[in-house]
């Protein structure tokens, strides 16, 4: 079965993990620090705190930024559940702003309109979470301007966009957002199995994230009320065990060395799809805006099923029977029963995201997808859409 995404592991990755398994450290050892240093260098971040997964990174971000019950946090409905759930974890109120029709990322004009509206009725908007959807960066310049103008915190859910370029800059993420979230789940650009990180240039935020990663404990004499001896620690706020292990981080460092080549391979695959599908009727291929490099975590193809004799479900089934497992990213979050019931969102609230959901399918894209496998995917898509 050809799936929509898959990890790429080679002998160097395996050797790096085996080496750690033979050593003294399994949990938080030197490989964690090395991976954090490697991420720091690659992404140009002053601080990187690795955690057990991307959802934990979002949860710690929400707590670190101090979101409270009366705070509204705005994000895009076109994302994975975890992006919005972290707002709920903190007890704050999630709200959404529709996507830009070209980049499929949150539309800054609509963000500003919404913030102005909330301000005019005395409601407190606290933060914006942008998602670099599918690997295409948000309009971070515009989002930063809005954040500065209205004194808002800005978070980048960067899970899809490792290795992407914005305004000719691969290290863009921490330059615009206060906190940047990554995930190293196997379908992402690099993997540690489960894993994630929070990147920032703000040392206070980093220190707080680090405390919350380990139960809220501190051994910093400047923060402690007492100091009974070298074993002593204190807890001033409640935290979690969101640590990642040493052997996962060894895999992470080994994978990171290949990130650029992984992105190049994804680009080649995307170019082949573009070339084969661009001129077909009823299809919209993903676009790359100028001075931007898409990192193609996903290849989202839009198909106008209303103009075709087959439904999306039938298309899915036919491809599955031909050995190709597509995916859909995403069911817009405001349509989830939890969000409808608790916050009153309705079908029709965010029409561009909803249309995207109805027409969108994610085609297979991962470094080890062979040219022959991709040829089969393209051939079958053409066959089923033209039948
Ligand atoms: C946009 C986005 N945010 C957050 C997450 C959560 O990451 P993790 O699966 O590592 O918890 C994902 C993972 O699928 C994601 O795609």
The side-by-side strand order for the widest beta sheet comes to: 1-8-7-5-4-2-3
Tell the overall outline: globular
Radius of gyration: 22 Å
Give the helix/strand class. Answer: alpha/beta
Strand content: 5-15%
Helix fraction, binned, reads 40-55%
Ligands in the model, by name, code or SMILES, are: pyridoxal-5'-phosphate
DSSP helix count? 14
pLDDT < 50 runs, ≥5 residues: none
| Helix/strand order, N-terminal first | HHEHEHEHEHEEHEEHEEHHEEEHHHEH
Largest sheet: 7 strands, mixed
Give the distance, in angstroms, between the N- and C-terminal Cα atoms. 23 Å
**Number of E strands:** 14
**Mean pLDDT over all positions:** 97
Highlighted features:
7-stranded mixed sheet; 387 residues; binds pyridoxal-5'-phosphate; 3-stranded antiparallel sheet; alpha/beta; 14 helices
Describe this structure in words.
This protein is of the alpha/beta class and 387 residues long. The protein is built from 14 helices and 14 strands. It has helices at residues 11-21, 30-43, 54-64, 81-89, 108-120, 140-149, 173-176, 203-213, 246-256, 259-277, 312-321, 337-343, 351-359, 371-386; strands spanning 47-51, 71-75, 93-96, 124-131, 153-157, 165-166, 179-183, 196-200, 217-218, 234-235, 283-284, 292-293, 299-303, 360-363. The longest helix is centred in the C-terminal third of the chain and has 19 residues, at 259-277. It is globular. It starts with 10 loop residues before the first helix and ends with a helix. The model has no long low-confidence stretch (mean pLDDT 97). Bound molecules: pyridoxal-5'-phosphate. Pyridoxal-5'-phosphate binds next to helix 3 and helix 4.
